[in-house]
Structures are given as structure tokens and as C-alpha cells.
Amino acid sequence: MQETIKEIVVATKNAGKVAEFKVALNGLPYKVTSLVELGNFPEATENGVTFAENSCSKAEFYARLTGKLCLADDSGLEVDYLKGEPGVYSARYAGEHAGDEDNNKKLLSNLIGVPPEKRTGRFRCVLALANAEKTLLTTDGTVEGVILSEPRGDKGFGYDPLFLVPELGCTLAEMSHEEKNRISHRGQAIREMAKQLAVLEK
Ligand SMILES: O=c1nc[nH]c2c1ncn2[C@H]1C[C@H](O)[C@@H](COP(=O)(O)OP(=O)(O)OP(=O)(O)O)O1
Ligand SMILES: [Mg+2]
């Protein structure tokens, strides 16, 4: 029996996300390509007010440009004490061209003096799969945590070193890709996407 191997393009410019996708999708009947492997594509505009809007617009934008099935991820951190900020603005928290370090610094400075029990928050992720015509599927995931006052760990990306998963006693930056995928917002959304894709192809 011959399995159909389809190509899915992980349509993100974030190398940290790509690494997690490659690990999570390993073993499934898809050829997983990242955007950078296909060429130098422009940034997608992310002017939606929800993760879902941005995720669908990124997936459709890159599906039209590549002509391939594209899987986009829009994600971010919601901090309760900051009334859900930075949320969809997580990547631009410290400014339009801010890097992870700038964003982490700004987050810490906005939480100075806030005790641990008030530093709760969550990562959210919405995935969208699109072809050149439209979005075919969306899935999401969430992971709850606490924002530390100092970074811990050197793996991962973004806000990972500041995000403690209380049940495990470690930050997302202290985990391997496999460990992070098992519990993360992105890992959950990827597993659900793989499930729904399998149904779609039946
Ligand atoms: O697992 C995560 N661990 C740490 N930080 C994370 C995670 N997931 C999202 N984040 C942060 C990074 C960035 O500040 C923002 C996502 O912004 P977002 O626009 O979705 O991604 P991005 O601009 O880095 O790449 P792209 O839009 O090309 O997919 O939330
Ligand atoms: Mg982005």
C-alpha cells in the first residue's frame, strides 16, 4: 500500500516555531517544508485583533505566494495582571522591530514588585491551514503558567525563559522540543491539526 505524502509548508519566519513544528510533525505522512527553504518571502501583515484572524491571514497570504498548502501559527502571551497584554501584540511588545530580549525586558519591567500569585498568564496559539483559495482548518491550544522575575533556561525562544509551568517546576526554556510540545499551546494545536487533517483526507 502506498501512502500519499503531501507537502505542508510551515509558514512562519520564526525559526523557534519551525523547530517545534518539525519535531511535532515528524513521523506523519507529510513532507514538512519551512518558508525559508522555499525562498525569501515578504513579511505577512498582522493587523488582526485576534490570533485567529492573524493566523488565517498569514496562512492564506503564504499559500497564495507559494501555491502550496500552508500552515501558519499566530501565538502570544496573555498576562492577567496586565489585563491580557501583550496578547496579539506579543512580538511587537517593545516596539515594531523589537527582539525577544527587548520584549522580555519590557514584560519584567511592567511586573516589578508584583508577587508570584498575581503573575499568572497563558500562551495561546491558533494554527490555520490554507490553500491558495481559502483557510481549510483552524485549531488552537493554551498552556497556563506563571511569569518569573528572572529568566531561567537557554532553550526555546521568545518569552520561554520567563514562563514557569508550575506543575513541572520548570520554564519552557528548560525543556527539550519534545517536552515542550507535549504540554505547550503549540503542541496541542499541532496534534489537533494532525487529527483533523487525517479526517479531511479520508
Ligand atoms: O512557545 C512560545 N514560547 C515563547 N514565546 C512565544 C511562544 N509562542 C509565541 N511566543 C511569543 C513570541 C512572539 O513574541 C509572539 C508570537 O508572535 P507571532 O506573530 O505569532 O510570531 P512571529 O512574529 O515570531 O513569527 P511569524 O508571525 O512569522 O509566525 O509570541
Ligand atoms: Mg509575527
Automatic annotation (TrEMBL):
GO MF term set: dITP diphosphatase activity; ITP diphosphatase activity; metal ion binding; nucleotide binding; ribonucleoside triphosphate phosphatase activity; XTP diphosphatase activity
A Gene Ontology BP annotation from the UniProt entry: purine nucleoside triphosphate catabolic process
InterPro entries listed in its UniProt record: dITP/XTP_pyrophosphatase, ITPase-like_fam, RdgB/HAM1
SUPFAM superfamilies xrefs: ITPase-like
Enzyme class, broadest EC rank: hydrolase
Free-text comment on the cofactor: Binds 1 Mg(2+) ion per subunit.
Cofactor: Mg(2+)
Residue positions binding Mg(2+): D74
EC number: 3.6.1.66
Catalytic reaction equation(s): ITP + H2O = IMP + diphosphate + H(+); dITP + H2O = dIMP + diphosphate + H(+); XTP + H2O = XMP + diphosphate + H(+)
Gene Ontology cellular-component annotations: cytosol
Annotated positions binding substrate: T12, K13, N14, A15, G16, K17, S75, F157, G158, Y159, D160, K180, H185, R186
Protein keywords: Hydrolase, Magnesium, Metal-binding, Nucleotide metabolism, Nucleotide-binding
CDD domains reported in the protein's UniProt record: HAM1
Active site: D74 (proton acceptor)
Family according to the record: Belongs to the HAM1 NTPase family.
Subunit (UniProt): Homodimer.
PANTHER family the UniProt entry points to: INOSINE TRIPHOSPHATE PYROPHOSPHATASE (PTHR11067:SF9), INOSINE TRIPHOSPHATE PYROPHOSPHATASE/HAM1 PROTEIN (PTHR11067)
Annotated NCBIfam families: PRK14822.1, RdgB/HAM1 family non-canonical purine NTP pyrophosphatase
Record's function text: Pyrophosphatase that catalyzes the hydrolysis of nucleoside triphosphates to their monophosphate derivatives, with a high preference for the non-canonical purine nucleotides XTP (xanthosine triphosphate), dITP (deoxyinosine triphosphate) and ITP. Seems to function as a house-cleaning enzyme that removes non-canonical purine nucleotides from the nucleotide pool, thus preventing their incorporation into DNA/RNA and avoiding chromosomal lesions.
Protein name per its UniProtKB record: dITP/XTP pyrophosphatase
UniProt source species: Sporomusa malonica
